[in-house]
Amino acid sequence: MEPLKTVEGRAYPLGTKNVDTDMVIAAKWLKTISRVGLGKGAFEALRADPDNVFDDPTYAGSPILIAGDNFGCGSSREHAAWALIDMGVRVVIAPSFSDIFASNAFKNGILTVAVPQEAVDRLMEVAKTDPIHVDLEAQSVTTPFQDRFSFEIDPFRKSCLLGGLDEVGLTLGNTSGIEQYEQKRAADQPWLVPAVA
Amino acid sequence: MTQPTTLYQKIWDAHVVERRDDGTCLIYIDRHLIHEVTSPQAFEGLRIAGRKVRRPDLTLAVPDHNLPTTARRDAAGNRIPIADPEGAGQLAALERNAPEFGIRYFGDADPEQGIVHVVGPEQGFTLPGTTLVCGDSHTAAHGALGALAFGIGTSEVEHVLATQTLLLKQSKTMEVRVDGELGPGVTAKDLILEVIRRIGTAGGTGHVIEYRGSAFRDLSIEGRLTVSNMSIEGGARAGLFAPDEKTFAYLKGRPMAPQGAAWDAAVAYWKTLVTDEGAVFDTSVVFDASEVVPNVTWGTSPEDVVPITGVVPAPESFADPSKQAAAKAALDYMGLTVGQRMEDVPVEHIFIGSCTNSRIEDLRAAAAVLKGRKIAGTIRQALVVPGSGLVKRQAEAEGLDRIFTESGFEWREPGCSMCLGMNPDRVPAGERCASTSNRNFMGRQGPGARTHLVSPAMAAAAAITGHLTDVRELVGETA
User: Fold this and answer.
1) Best interface-test mutation with A: which of B58, B96, B132, B159 has the largest number of A CBs within 10 A?
2) How far is CA B416 from the centre of its chain?
């Protein structure tokens, strides 16, 4: 996973409340064999509207998404996080997030920033003309106009995101315990390695 | 060491790599089974991160869910293409990923290929006292051999591939104790359906079930696999049987099982894998084997179980209002009326197969009922799908295939088949199937399909009469 320290760039000013994971990625995209490439299916229903923010060239490739309350509610599909990452989004800013989505986002290296509705309103306004700066170390969101909003994050998740450590990476960060266990098992119970026919 | 402990606790303790302050443990995984549906994104994750599979030697890959059960090679030995491009894509991905990551792979036309939960025990890949996982909830089956076995999601599949471990919290323990002898015509399937009827589909949530008592002990390994397989339908992620002489006899000489001196050392260890006298379970369910009769499901949840001699229950007969509503919806979906005798329910499809009931003993039980008989003219399709290529060969060596085909069944290639609508074998909307599989969910066997879960002998009996039938009467008639 790519470490995430600071993210600066334009932001999709979506603003919608209760964006569910079906809206992020519809069920018909779930039969894929890849978590890559789901970006093209992201927000498919919203993109039927010709004035949608995702197809507006102003925001093309934005690393930040700004949304309303309860982002990521509904189905637990990990594909929603895969779709966002695939379209290049590393940070979602909203007043609140569903627990499951927040967990899936974290597992896939996406930072969820919860700030009050007034802050979201202001950032939506800035996003229409200017870039936004997110600093995970400082736990702040800033704009070129001296706006500064701070946010909370679980210390464990913060260190994982800063270090680019997913859960697999974390476990791999301490393989000596696994190696010791394997050596002991190989000595005590050598039959555990399957015979090769 | 003085504290008496459960079998589950013993296996858990033997696999703790690291214990964290919040009680979460890093648990070592001894065996990992892979199939085509839940593994592609896990392999992709490894590839993107530049990671290897830590222990390919502890990993085994077999395609099963998507494979059509019709011929896979033409007369010239060329692969017959699969019509569904997405299913074909998942199969192709596994065929590519396994060798790329150094994992042993049984291909679609290899005699060892089969349903992953049939292949593991059959190869001796599944061993007592091991931890075994697979991206499939019916992994619980392997508990029949005394392995702590459970299903996992795709992110966890990737975690196991990369680290050979999982971060887990310990489960609670449930004892299901059944003493006494099962009556004639009553099988392992009837017994586990009875357990699920009693505890409900959420009864085992958060628990690992240990099956205890003489009724479970007297089951063959195949019967135990049927029981443990459906632990998940009772809400339990895993089931366990203490390994015994039957387990050892079943495993001895299997291709991947220990041999020679290693075998003796393994058996000595396996003999310690019992729940100690006086060990305490969090929950206990006890009944007598004489209370179990041939069972059948009437609704759309595996807990919707009645004796074959019973009738379709009234929704009002359930105390819980939400269950009443669910029962109403189920009756509507199933096209049944309250009070209708289960034996009067006609079926148009018969499915003998799935990871629950596709082993040699299941096929023998069905063939014993079918021998010398023809299926009813009203049956549109009757499928027998052996659980593996080796089961298929064994059955053919015993002449079972001819009994099936002469009675009107189709004899197919191994795979998950009609258990779930992921391959061409489906029950059409509004039609009814007597099925030896494990889930009677709405749409499970195809959109609109109506499923009645039964034992292999009961499925065979329904095939002959064209309606749900008490196999005891049918066999009794000619006995």
Assistant:
1) B159
2) 10
Is B416 annotated to bind ligand? yes
CA distance A80 to B86: 20
- DSSP state at residue A110: P
Mean of pLDDT values over B176-201: 97
Looking at the structure, tell me whether residues B139 and B283 fall in a common domain.
Answer: yes
Instruction: Tell me which residue of B229, B245, B240 sits closest to B281, measured CA to CA.
Output: B240
Chain A residue with minimum CA distance to B43: A34
CB contact under 8 A, A194 and B58: yes
Largest CA distance in chain B: 65
What is the tens place of the pLDDT at every residue in B425-439? 999 999 999 999 999
Nearest CA to B362 out of B377, B349, B352 is that of B352
**Chain B residues close to A35, C-beta within 8 Å:** 41, 44-45
Domain boundary residue, one of B244, B274, B293 = B293
Q: Is B355 annotated as a binding residue?
A: yes
ipTM of the assembly? 0.92
Spell out which residues of chain A touch residue B158, defining contact as CB-CB under 8 Å: 168
**In which band, very low, low, confident or very high, does the pLDDT at A99 lie, cut at 50, 70 and 90?**
confident
Q: Which residues of B touch A175 (CB under 8 A)?
A: 163
Shortest Cα–Cα distance, B146 to chain A (Å): 14
Distance (Å) from the alpha carbon of B311 to chain A's nearest alpha carbon: 37
| B253 inside 8 A of chain A by CB | no
Summarised one tens digit per residue, pLDDT across range B203-213 is: 998 899 999 99
State the nearest Cα–Cα gap between B303 and chain A, in angstroms. 25
d(CA B224, CA A139): 55
For each of the domains in chain A, give its residue range(s) and CATH number, in order of start: 6-165 (3.20.19.10)
Q: Give the model confidence (pLDDT) of B206-254 as tens digits.
A: 899 999 999 999 999 999 999 999 999 999 999 999 999 999 999 999 9
Q: Which residues of B touch A167 (CB under 8 A)?
A: 155, 159, 167
Cα–Cα distance for residue pair A71/A59, rounded to 1 Å: 20
The SS3 of residue A105 is helix
For B376, residues 6+ apart whose C-beta sits below 8 A from its C-beta are B463, B464, B465, B466
Of B89, B164, B255, the CB nearest to A197: B255
Q: Are B255 and B388 in contact (CB under 8 A)?
A: no
Per CB-CB distance under 8 Å, the chain A contacts of B165 are 171, 178
**Residue B398 touches partner A, C-beta closer than 8 Å:** no
Whether B407 and B266 map to the same domain: the answer is: no
Domain boundary among B249, B278, B293: B293
Q: Does B122 touch chain A (CB under 8 A)?
A: no
Range of the domain at B364: 295-478
Are B376 and B305 part of one and the same domain? yes
